[in-house]
């Protein structure tokens, strides 16, 4: 179920344009602002899509308008119902709602075909038989116009060939339908672009009904117009395609108002790649476990890692909407998550690299309980009960047999240290195995320091240490995730992104000792492990008797404003 969200929407240049359009005298005066989010169902949504989602749905929310969800399924070779369902799940998880405004580009295939026929009849489209190789040779350059020997093909001949293309008479690549615009245009997108191609592939909804499919630049403006979209908000790479968008909506024979296309810069984040092709390669070649691997920038991966809808939407809102391309630090995304979890996550104790601590003067067989606050920033979250006894688990790094300078944790003869919420202890020694490895730490406690505060209010020079009661602790597996790539620009030109993979992006700790209450953790429950970071119960692998926790983000904030 989507979490309740209350994220403000910043003013940006897109909203400035919309304000002009709906003002008195504007082209959409008196009309409802209507946007759309049109993903292609050929992969899973990733963090880059979140910016577009935030803009499309957020703009509709701001103006009290509507936003459609439309699957751009005009390329059957790589599209699948699996992706359709995953996209809907991810969008709902973020808290956006399209109500009953859910469409497919394939809903309009008949109308698109009719529009193409109309363009042919008006002398604005023709069937071209150039092969892909010949097409490239005839493309021309900045000083040389493109050419096609089929441009002046008779209208009736093109209509006949186009119908035969649809009937499946020709193989893939044998023919295309091209718009007849301007072979000498300085904008290569206007040099008689292809608007239909032959593709004998099974479609996830249409089956084998069609063997010709419209190109995106032809289909998209028609879909927008047919759905009553007022503002077609898209990423910056479509800026040069806008003249073609306008040409299609101006010449297609359907009754509509003219949508306005507005472009914005795509989201770029360092230490990641957001090409669906490259993400698919990571999955299919086994570099990650699946699309929902917590190292992936996919929404399902971020969700499994422990990211919240609020943190992602807040991130998208705070980076703003720019007209020029820029790259955002991944550390800022982590900063937004850390802010959210610091406010909402319950504090618990977990020992990731355990070593036994025995309090030698604590009575054998005795145990007691302590009330520990769940979140110091939210008193209304109350307290929980943890048990304490003679044998505890603590972190290995909290003990050194021979201390280094300024070390303030446990070592023989060292200062008193606090056990979080329990007692003051002093290290008296350790036990080693035959190989000389420390296997157990020995200490004494001050019975008059219950709660970690000595009765005489003396100053405690040692550190505060978290712990878990050995008698009641539960075992768990903890997965420490880091960036999937060690290079901040793995997608830069000239680089092989696979050579930039971080070999230390995952560390699995299989012997963690956890506070007893974590045995009841439900998938996706989020916690702060004291002194360790923020973690969530893995939604796929964690279950009673086999607890698995993923580190969502460390406690240390690496983002510097």
Quick summary:
By secondary structure, this protein is an alpha/beta fold. It contains 12 helices and 27 strands. The protein has a 7-stranded mixed beta sheet with strand order 12-25-26-27-23-24-13, with helices on one face. Strands 21-18-19-20-14-17-22 form a 7-stranded mixed beta sheet, with no helix packed on it. Strands 4-5-6-7 form a 4-stranded antiparallel beta sheet.
Task: Give structural notes.
The chain is α/β, with parallel strands linked by helices. It has twelve helices and 27 strands.
Topology:
Blueprint: H1 13-22, E1 34-37, H2 47-62, E2 66-71, H3 81-94, E3 102-104, H4 109-121, E4 125-128, H5 132-137, H6 155-167, E5 176-179, E6 194-198, E7 212-214, H7 216-226, E8 231-235, H8 242-251, E9 260-264, E10 267-269, H9 276-284, H10 299-305, H11 309-319, E11 326-328, H12 330-344, E12 346-348, E13 350-351, E14 354-359, E15 367-373, E16 383-389, E17 391-395, E18 417-419, E19 424-432, E20 438-445, E21 464-465, E22 468-469, E23 474-481, E24 506-514, E25 526-529, E26 533-537, E27 547-553
Parallel strand pairs: 1-2, 2-3, 8-9, 10-11, 12-25, 14-20, 18-21, 23-27
Antiparallel strand pairs: 4-5, 5-6, 6-7, 13-24, 14-17, 15-16, 17-22, 18-19, 19-20, 23-24, 25-26, 26-27
Helix content: 10-25%
Q: Tell me the fraction of residues in β-strands, as a range.
A: 15-25%
Q: Based on Cα principal axes, name the global outline.
A: elongated
**Count of helical segments?**
12
Biggest sheet statistics = 7 strands, mixed
Mind telling me the C-alpha Rg? Answer: 31 Å
Q: Terminal Cα separation, in Å?
A: 33 Å
Broad structural category: alpha/beta
Instruction: Please count the beta strands (DSSP E, at least 2 residues each).
Output: 27
| Mean pLDDT across all amino acids | 94
Spatial order of strands in the largest sheet: 12-25-26-27-23-24-13
